[in-house]
Design brief:
47% of the residues lie in helices and 11% in strands. The chain is mainly alpha-helical and 193 residues long. The protein binds manganese (II) ion.
């Protein structure tokens, strides 16, 4: 069975980019509903005790969609922290980003563009492939790069529930406001390169 993760920061830690109200609804209502829905669908599938990643890879239909949303939200919420000026990765992850994208700014521009141009509900991801190469991708709805054999490192939720209370239709402003919030230590810990 799947469980609702606890947030590793206070409800107002990400404000004003993400208000306490948005975070409260997003975690306590939206993510909780995906967890509850998935758990209601798990009995009889043989995946009752499987890790979340395995449920996502091996399921289909409504279970796949709800479990995918749990996996994506867990990655999103654990990739954020209180804002920092000049926020950027360092060490081997920064070196990999510079090698793959030319510079951190060029990476961020491409990542933000992927998030901005995802049509409708979905996600932008930074992932690593089997050779530790970095890949930016868009996933509609509950999609996850795990299903393509990639290791997801970082994601931005661009479902409207992620930003509408704070930013209304201004998705670009929401994405820009996330740049100081990315927990690059958490992202680097996922990167094996
Ligand atoms: Mn969401």
């Amino acid at each position: 069975m799947l469980s609702l993760i606890s947030l590793p920061y206070a409800a107002d830690a990400l404000a004003p980019a993400i208000s306490a109200q948005t975070l409260s609804f997003h975690h306590g209502k939206h993510l909780k509903a995906y967890v509850d829905n998935a758990n209601a669908l798990l009995p009889g599938t043989g995946l009752e005790e499987a890790p979340l990643e395995e449920v996502v890879i091996r399921s289909a239909g409504a279970l796949r969609l709800n479990a995918g949303q749990v996996l994506n939200h867990n990655l999103y919420f654990t990739s954020l922290r209180a804002p920092r000026e000049g926020n950027r990765p360092d060490g081997r992850l920064l070196a990999a980003i510079e090698a793959h994208f030319g510079s951190f700014d060029a990476f961020w521009d491409a990542f933000a563009k992927a998030a901005l141009t995802q049509f409708g509900s979905g996600w932008a991801f930074l992932s690593a492939d089997a050779k530790d190469r970095l890949v930016i991708s868009q996933e509609p709805n509950a999609g996850n790069p795990l299903q393509k054999g990639l290791v997801p490192l970082l994601t931005i939720d661009v479902w409207e529930h992620a930003y509408y209370l704070d930013w209304q239709n201004r998705r670009a402003d929401y994405i820009a406001a996330l740049r100081p919030l990315i927990d690059w230590d958490a992202v680097a810990a996922r990167y094996k390169g």
